[in-house]
């Protein structure tokens, strides 16, 4: 289901009212009741960044006042679903720090963001995955905020529906949404997301460990509804996947859960993690994008060391993985980079292409969750440039468009701010 259709389901009364030109009853007030002050439960957070625009997203029971970009102007919030509001601001200056203010009732909420650079500029990403309440406080987000990237890219498991500390597994959409609010009720995370634009995609734990097309339909539906509301509504795309231009880079953020065949199915041309439409869109993007650097963001790692069995590309979906690698190989692999999450240990791997040569894969996990055992050193080949152990943190990726090809600088920074690994290419 596309985001637009799902949000229409979530906010049917609101969107129908907007279509008919009547005032929706978002505040729950009758004609004789005074309007209530807005209480913002999530946000306001900057999302959908471009070189000249930004959107401000928030969850609240009543529409807040206009979003103000200090020194630039204001923009009204519009309802995108029941209790979700988005304000879009255009006409900004590339690669410029801006401060915004949102007033809701007696409260004033402030934040900041930096617009994306032009194509010949330097773009900075923080990349992470995995957020679990047992790892609170989420101090890695303090480090991310201090570095002021253009974007935080979250590659899945932003909540753990199947491993919630309460021991309860959500059974309704409201239960899933409450899980998001509890998991994200962290000062460091909220301060970071108020000052760094975010782009999030789900992985398995937003529903169930290693979930695929065999999961109970009702559980899948309520988990998806909550994901669409809390994460996908902050994406600029109406498809399940997202393409985002970011200075010298173009990002293709994959959805590796929505279209997934059963993990236990026999591997071959009919088994898919992406589905026909998403795979075709990825290949077309590889063939046609003229960005100096193309970044494929996959919550599920492509490299051979991923040890989650048939859930992983290399062990359960190798046929489709090879289709992707051949498409990369045919379209200037020197301008392609892969970033991934999932494994709960960070890594940098040279991903081999079918005809020789490699593509760099940066695995950036966990950011604020438990550790898993990384592969033993004796099992690693020379293609594994770095494997971290017991290190929460994030990937820091800089892409400099002033050089041809762009210079790539990457570091794995732990939650205390220590750089554990770094490389520069070319």
Automatic annotation (TrEMBL):
The keyword Signal applies. It comes from the Bacteria. InterPro entries: Metallo-depent_PP-like, PhoD-like_MPP, PhoD-like_sf, Phospholipid_Metab_Enz. Residues 137-367 form the PhoD-like phosphatase metallophosphatase domain. PROSITE patterns: PROKAR_LIPOPROTEIN. Keywords: Signal. Residues 1-19 form the signal peptide. PANTHER family: ALKALINE PHOSPHATASE FAMILY PROTEIN (AFU_ORTHOLOGUE AFUA_5G03860), PHOSPHATASE, PUTATIVE (AFU_ORTHOLOGUE AFUA_6G08710)-RELATED. This is Alkaline phosphatase. It comes from Sandaracinus amylolyticus.
